[in-house]
Design a protein that fits this description.
Structural class of chain A: alpha+beta
Largest sheet of chain A: 6 strands, antiparallel
Strand content of chain A: 35-45%
Order of helices and strands of chain A: EEEEHHHEHEHEEEEEE
Helix content of chain A: 10-25%
Oligomer: homotetramer
Number of strands of chain A: 12
Largest interface: A-B, 36 and 36 residues
């Protein structure tokens, strides 16, 4: 499956300002960058650094005035897909070191607060079956509502208010999974089904790999049901949205316009 | 400087339970493990995995019944010490990839909430001078008060309540530093001056290294003033206390006793 | 129905300290104080003041050293009981002035946060039928768990954690009702069925009185199902628990013991 | 001192909706309504009910479509003014029943969280002198910043963020006073010095009346320094902003425009 991505956004800086960008498809085994082109306005400083867990890159800029980002890419997704509902949970003591940090509470995902609820509501299920039940519970009980949340909204807020956007759905999904001692992380991505077209976010959970004794793997779970894992192009990962914003400015900026287009083709 | 460490703690598990431990001095360039001995009760499963950023190790257990941990070590601290107040801030765009995640908000350190305060109170200072001013402001305005906080207490809570223990002091210090776009992380450690003797926690900030153009380094800052960086033995690091507990149980446990002894000798 | 109440509690003050008590059955039309006896240790100052909305009295003390409260009362409850599920909601614009403040958010009852949930879950029902559905939803989804909450726990916390005691159940019930624009208040009370015997708390909601055109009345709703409105003796009311603690000390106090006994007799 | 007030605002309702308004100068002893005129669009229901503590009135409406409020009044302020810094604190046990509820935490004013700070920072002062020190501390450490807060912002938020508008200043002032066991309430008002002209909010504290043994009185304290108590016309009071909004709609409404003019004349 090849995915064609176009991303364009602009912003204006009133003075020389540091900016961190992360918007490019990550070059990782599960997806091949067939072609790509990144056009950036001129900056007094530009450097690429590896992003979290070496998945994708961040771009550091020091720039001033109007800034324009134009990105096109064609990406082949070769992700191994599994029926998540059939996968087993790994016992915590089997988890590899790099998955451990995704068990812990993070800025927006207060899993400790949700343990009683998770036990009451999903306690009869284990592993992937529990994850699917959580995803379906969210789909049934939450309403996707642009404008209902902001950059301070946490998983607890969304759990109470039952409204949110992709970021909020991912945060609740992550918190529910971690409350079950299943590692879960936040994935910034492109996906064709997102409506209106925009950057997207999904959760990813770490479950046992039935083909590798003692092994495990990450699997995409999208409680908004907008992204198909077979067509999802990862930009980067983090513990939650605090880690993988497409743009972070260290100073004042006026955001301009943004246009995202993502299409699947054979 | 050689530091002699003894740590002992016990706990009881009512059924087979997964436990994550992190209490051993990390084998890292700035400190040499001269000798060490870890004695653990028998467990049905025991595995060591690298801890966060490969600093130290975590021990995964699956155990049942009474469990006892006895650890002794002699550690030579060779940390390069600097006069933090003289060090320059690195511009964000100069930061290496691995420092970036320590700029972001984490579970207990909501730096975004403290930006106005930091600008008002410390805006005239930069880099290490600002860090020292923050540390001294905390020492003057906070009272170290065992029992005043719990495992849910955040940097914002402590900032308002002006009371806390080492963990809380480190959280506020980290949040203030990040609000200044200075990377900051949480360090679990042993240190001789801690009173009453216990595991300790300090903040670490990333500042320019005057000897390496474009380079930076981490420096310990302890707003409780109990730990001397020259005598501090690191166990592990994290974004905040959520990442480096000495013991995390995935199920019910009764904690028993704990004895920590840390001495410096020539 | 006559209710026999015995309440005893003690506390110790290290220096002359102001204390506010509210533990006596309120003298109000719906319950008649057949007999009562209040024995208090000596205090340098003692004054009774009317409590909130003139329901019951608060006792101001200035005391020192050991203090003992012994209270016995026999109270006839003549409350008019209604089938709450049959009662109609009053339109907001019909509410009398004194009910209006019980529509608003209070310290522990953040009704604004629960409006989406209430609309999604109970939107097809109105008035008393909605209140009963909320009460039953709580009974089904929450577990009464002594020790699960503390004096900072809010309705939002309890809604997320699904655990609490009478105070927490009342807070969630109040928040859900106010989120439906039904006035709701907190009632501190004695009731025979409370197990273990203690002071109790329930919610009260304001619904249309079918016998008085344009009129309304308060009705007890206990989501813990421990108190029968026909046997509940009110002590006082407030917006939430912040208003009607049985004991508030303005300084340090060591609480001693507490014994409550409440029995119904013909 | 006569104050001339003009207030105009409009809103649009898409369907028949209940609305609660409170914008008229209260008829209370400390201010005389010399003349007034309230013009409201037609409504299917309109009723006046007493507002909190019988200070001022609330107007209940049921209306539809465009709605317009035009209010003019001329009010003589005869408030007894005191040098607040000279007034003594009343001991809690001397407080009259009606002041007690203003000691407790409310939705936006979490006084319990601020007790350590208040003791550390203002512990050497008592009564009115402490209140003035708090007001001046706020004036020095906070920056009045329209747009920095919203309707969810609490006193704790503002205390941390050091930015806010009149509502937020009043909330912090109230929380600091209550943390000192001084009753404090929120006052919605008109005042000439408010810039830009708008509804205003101040705190009011209850301190000993030197002319009446055992008596006390409420005194306006405005940490924004925009309102002069001698020229402040009260609309209503409450525990915090949750109680005295000038307009609360129980359904969807589009707010239109708002113009407030307040002038003092001899």
């Amino acid at each position: 499956m090849a995915i064609d991505i176009k991303a364009h956004f602009t912003f204006t800086l009133d003075q020389a300002t540091d900016v961190l960008l992360q918007f490019e498809a990550a070059a990782i085994p599960e997806q091949t960058i067939l072609s790509n082109d990144t056009q950036l306005s001129e900056a007094s400083h530009m450097a690429r650094v590896p992003a979290q867990d070496a998945i994708g890159e961040r771009i550091w800029l020091r720039a001033n005035g109007e800034f324009r980002v134009d990105y096109t890419a064609r990406v082949e997704v070769q992700r191994l897909l599994a029926d998540v509902g059939e996968l087993k949970r790994m016992d915590p003591h089997e988890l590899p070191g790099e998955a451990v940090e995704y068990l812990f509470d993070s800025r927006y995902c207060q899993a400790d607060r949700m343990q009683s609820f998770v036990e009451d509501e999903f306690g009869r299920l284990e592993g992937g079956a529990r994850i699917i039940a959580m995803r379906d519970w969210m789909a049934e009980n939450f309403i996707y509502t642009p404008g209902s949340s902001n950059s301070n909204t946490t998983a607890v807020d969304t759990f109470v208010e039952r409204r949110g956007i992709c970021r909020d759905y991912a945060h609740v999904m992550i918190a529910l999974a971690r409350a079950s001692t299943i590692p879960a992380r936040f994935v910034s991505c492109y996906a064709p089904g997102v409506d209106p077209p925009d950057f997207h976010a999904v959760a990813e959970v770490f479950l046992a790999d039935p083909t590798v004794p003692g092994g495990g793997a990450w699997h995409i779970v999208d409680a908004t049901h907008m992204a198909d894992p077979a067509e999802t192009v990862k930009i980067g990962i983090g513990r939650d949205a605090a880690d993988v914003s497409f743009m972070t400015t260290f100073g004042m900026a006026q955001f301009g316009d943004k246009q995202i287009s993502v299409r699947a083709s054979e």
